[in-house]
Specification:
By secondary structure, the chain is of the alpha/beta class. It has four helices and five strands, in the order E-H-E-H-E-H-E-E-H. It has a five-stranded mixed beta sheet with strand order 1-3-2-4-5.
C-alpha cells in the first residue's frame, strides 16, 4: 500500500492525487481528509487552487489534502454525487462530513476544515 501520508503528488508536495486505487485508504482513518474535486478545464477550480495549496500548508500534519480529477476518476465523483466543480469535501473515518460547492473563498474552506478538526481557530 502506498504511503498516503507522505503527501506525494504529481501536482504538489502538499496534496495527494487521489485515485480509485488509493481513495478509500486515504479517507478511512481518523485524520480529516480535505478532498478537492477538480478538472483541468475548470476555471473556478484553477482560481481556487492557490487557496487550497495555502490551506494545505497551514494545516499540514493535521489534515490530509487530496485532489480528485473528475475526468480521470469518474467513479469517485459519481459515488459521492459530485455534479458541480469545484466541490470540496471533508472526510473522517471513511465518511463525508461536510461539503462546499463552488469558488467560495478561503474563509468558507477554512470553516469546513476547522469544523472537522474540532476547533474554531487554526
Amino acid at each position: 500500500m502506498p504511503d498516503i501520508m507522505s503527501h506525494e503528488s504529481s501536482r504538489t508536495e502538499l496534496t495527494v492525487k487521489l485515485t480509485e486505487e488509493n481513495f478509500d485508504d486515504a479517507v478511512s482513518g481518523p485524520t480529516p481528509v480535505f478532498v478537492d474535486y477538480w478538472a483541468v478545464w475548470c476555471g473556478p477550480c484553477r482560481i481556487m487552487d492557490p487557496v487550497v495549496e495555502k490551506l494545505a500548508a497551514k494545516y499540514f500534519g493535521r489534515v490530509l489534502f487530496g485532489k480528485v480529477n473528475v475526468d480521470e476518476e469518474m467513479n469517485i465523483s459519481s459515488r459521492f454525487q459530485v455534479f458541480s466543480i469545484p466541490t470540496f469535501m471533508i472526510f473522517k473515518n471513511g465518511q463525508p462530513m461536510d461539503a462546499v460547492i463552488g469558488a467560495v473563498g478561503e474563509a468558507s474552506l477554512e470553516k469546513l476544515i476547522t469544523g472537522a478538526i474540532g476547533t474554531g481557530t487554526p
